[in-house]
Amino acid sequence: MSTNSYYGQDGHGPFELCDIGTLELEDGGALPGCQLAVATHGTLNAAKDNAILVPTWYSGTSKIMEQVYIGNGRALDPAKYFIIVVNQIGNGLSTSPHNAGAGQGGPDFPKVRIGDDVRAQHRLLTEKFGLESLALVVGGSMGAQQTYEWAVRYPDFVRRAAAIAGTARNTEHDFLFADTLIEAITSDPGFRAGRYATSADVAAGLKRHARLWTVMGWSTDFFRADRHKALGFDSVQSFVDTFMTGYFAPMDPNNLIAMAWKWQRGDVSRHAGGDLAAALGRIRAKTYVMPISHDMFFPPGDCEAEQRLIRGSEFRPLKSIAGHLGLFGVDPELLAQLDAHLSELLATPVG
Amino acid sequence: MSTNSYYGQDGHGPFELCDIGTLELEDGGALPGCQLAVATHGTLNAAKDNAILVPTWYSGTSKIMEQVYIGNGRALDPAKYFIIVVNQIGNGLSTSPHNAGAGQGGPDFPKVRIGDDVRAQHRLLTEKFGLESLALVVGGSMGAQQTYEWAVRYPDFVRRAAAIAGTARNTEHDFLFADTLIEAITSDPGFRAGRYATSADVAAGLKRHARLWTVMGWSTDFFRADRHKALGFDSVQSFVDTFMTGYFAPMDPNNLIAMAWKWQRGDVSRHAGGDLAAALGRIRAKTYVMPISHDMFFPPGDCEAEQRLIRGSEFRPLKSIAGHLGLFGVDPELLAQLDAHLSELLATPVG
Q: Is the pLDDT of residue A100 over 90?
């Protein structure tokens, strides 16, 4: 176990660490004393029917969900809903490579799948909060992967689902993109097969990883429209060197790789012997499928193909040249569209 | 100077090596005894008005232009036209890092720009072939960069121009993508700052480079439609490991880096103090701008923005989910569209 001050209450709190006991893992092994970092907003009502679950994406924590998506007057309004943001395993706040117990630290961290996260979250929600259903599960990117997993695995628990900029079964193209992210890091001699001393030892790899995110994370239209300049950077190069590299530089490389491995293998069809249509056919939640128009690796086409397999679902693309990383909240129009869709979804009666 | 059997007449011939003398370079220095590898098809007519110039793209040689684009009954028909395919400097057939003379080999190869290639080609065409004009310059990707450079630099020489899947001024996004390609190679410890013994020493870097090309070179729609399976690969992974990795593996890393450096800096606005509109305003050729619909790094939007700055030009996008590497000729429908446009362009009377 190493320390990394990036993952603390100062930068990412307030959050509560909840011990959910031993989590058996789909790929073998277990996380004893698995801890989920949880941030809640609002109050659970007496009927316990106003709970919303928000899982997190690659590299993100509960903090960005709080800052960008939750607030009074927003769709995710703490005045109306009890909003539970659960940090995914491996993200640095919950049990992760950099903070894991004896024998499981760093590169020895066991393989964790999306399904493991969702079972861990289910245990948390039922045992700690006494929930029997969720008014909504909503997440972006890997949060969308968890959202789909929730809706397929626990169809009676999830009343509404909103999958933003993510898929139920990861594509091979997307798998390959994540491979390039992993390799950008692991090819750094300073990575030392995961046994580096600090993230700074892997700075070159983390910078390459940031560059790849810049190429694929936004869109060609975003840069053509000089949106990076509107954000305060005079060139794409300074945007990469300052914003993108600065964002990833303090993160723990093994944490990122654990999440990337999980992301690559997100696949609800595992519940139906590889039959995606059968798996998605289990969903009973009222589901909105919400890709971002200019997303280069969870493109609308991939998402719409899945949407057509979900009974009663609706295709609600978000128009934004920000691309995938519009998730960061840099495009107010994307957030306005999202809020409108989520408000409509939350107002939709469900059985 | 090292040897690399990949770049021979066996795989890429027939081509002729033409010595154009000393080529002074825009960024300083010179290539003494600069050799251009040239392949011609058809016969120059007496009026010398049926010549077509075809420059090459990143990693490509005259061979793929011959195999995919030139033929009887095609738009580029050797029965009608005298078609001159000139291999770009650095591509391994013309003067390149791997075959350069004393003091210029490998990482000591001087910086070569698109403008250097075009001046070299102009010297070749005027001195060797006695040409005073070209019926058409047509190229894809870096070939499009050279096409634009020709039309801006020698406006009276170029009567028609067709820029496929490329831009007149490279975008910052595209620059960054090329950066990731370069870094994929240079980050390999076997690269040894360009002083490796053989390409095999840099196999890991070349494989990462191939993966990046797979992520950005085709399109998400291409893989969703299982086009890689239609090409004979049962998964994206085998497509990468066999086809894409196999394609790049024998190439010389310093050659690739010389081309990537050149690609990054393609910019006709250098002729007008950075004013792109003024530079493109110099073009007198009848110009077709032909991006490929699903191109992820020379996207139609970037190309159309430039097309609007070229007097009398036409925007003729090619619809293909193959994306940028549709240039390889894997999509017959793309080739059919291209031939139709080029035939129309060639049939258009020009002043």
A: yes
